[in-house]
Amino acid sequence: MEWLTSLVDLPAETLVKYLAGTVGVALFGSAVAFALIPSPPKIGVYSQPNKWYYLKYWTFFLLLKVRQRQNSRRAKGERGDAGYGKRSRNSVEDMDRIQELPKEHPKAVDAVYFNGGSKDGCYFVGATARRHDNLIQTLLYIRFPDFGLLEMPSLPDTCLLGEKPLSYAAGGLHIEVVEPMKHWRLSFKGLMRLIRCNGSREEVPVSFKLDWLAYTPHFDFDTDLDQSILCDAIAREVWSRERFEDLKLAHQTHYEQFGEISGVVDIGGYGERRLQVQGVRDHSYGNLRDWGDLHRYAIQYIHLDDGKAICIGSICMPRTMTRLIIGYVFHPSGQLERVKSCDINLHELGEDGNDPTDFVINFIAGNTKYHLEGLVLDRPIFYMGWDWESRIHERK
């Protein structure tokens, strides 16, 4: 085990080179042989396991164990490469705050997103993504089923200019942390487009101050994803030095937490409406977010009457991984079950651009099998990027 001890002490950059080069040479004779004879991808996009799958699976499993050990030995206050078993910050206070956008990375991002729904059909979605040059990609939707949908007049375009430096604020929407991982505040004052249930449209003044309060711990994708689904995603791909360099470059720290949004929404000319919805909020930051790299993703967030909070989804980003299953279940006690497997196949769900109005998902979290059936009530569409590189259906 002396070689493993030495591996633990290597810096992360050296580990990447080791995995992409030395491991390939040692195990397969050459880096070319390591990636030889890939199975044809589904519809030319989604990578499938090939004859090297299990060897790659267990090699990457070993790397995760190494990085987890590095994580446990990390010095207080130290920052460095994150993901794949290593957290980005040593405290929740350092994570749950506005992050610096490195000048040397023009596509860096620092983004927060909030959603929530209720069983009577109300929902709320609000988000801001800080980019360089004072760009804040912003969206806001509020739906009252007996009244209509409120949306920012700028939508489906999300590119707005920030209202003040180092803030999640644009277009009248302000999002700010009150207490890390416990309490955030969302406020708005300005015009919104009202789409009534009968299809009529008008712009109305809207204002609100809403509170988001957590009811689960946070789930850090850098450290909390089930190792088996991450190893599966990596083992499906053709390995090369470029692949692992892209994994490092394109990595974003991302964590999620379920909570409740509550407060009063004042709609000019229509009075006040009480909003109380449950859902997820997330925070992502990293050196590169290029919406053009993302082929497709589908993610469902669920709050159940018994208090369970569920995330289940799949992401296809050909630059790194074409089938990354993500998910978890939080029980009311705070107990966490990580998703281990799921039958979502994106090439069977709306690959032609027409997303289905209903769906069925089977997955395993912890030792429990779950069966999920969903029916889509609404699906406003918005675009991300200066050139609208990505179209997103905000399905509820």
Structure, described:
The chain is α+β, with helices and mostly antiparallel strands. The protein has seven helices and 20 strands. The strands form three sheets. Strands 1-2-3-4-8-9-11-12 form an eight-stranded antiparallel β-barrel. A six-stranded antiparallel β-sheet has the order 13-14-15-16-17-18. Strands 19-20 form a two-stranded antiparallel ribbon. α2 runs antiparallel to α4, α2 (12-28) runs antiparallel to α7 (241-250) and α4 packs across α6.
Beta-strand content = 35-45%
Q: Helix coverage percent of residues? A: 10-25%
Distance between the termini: 51 Å
User: What is the 3D shape?
Assistant: globular
- How large, in whole angstroms, is the Cα Rg? 22 Å
Helix and strand sequence:
HHHHHEEEEEEEEEEHHEEEEEEEEEE
Q: How many helices? A: 7
What is this structure, in a nutshell?
By secondary structure, the chain is α+β, with helices and mostly antiparallel strands. The protein is 18% helix and 41% strand.
Element layout with pairings:
Blueprint: H1 2-8, H2 12-28, H3 31-34, H4 53-72, H5 92-95, E1 109-117, E2 123-130, E3 135-144, E4 148-151, E5 159-161, E6 168-170, E7 173-179, E8 183-196, E9 201-214, E10 219-220, H6 227-235, H7 241-250, E11 252-267, E12 271-286, E13 296-303, E14 309-317, E15 321-330, E16 336-342, E17 358-365, E18 368-375, E19 381-384, E20 390-393
Antiparallel strand pairs: 1-2, 1-12, 2-3, 3-4, 3-5, 4-8, 6-7, 7-8, 8-9, 9-11, 10-11, 11-12, 13-14, 14-15, 15-16, 16-17, 17-18, 19-20
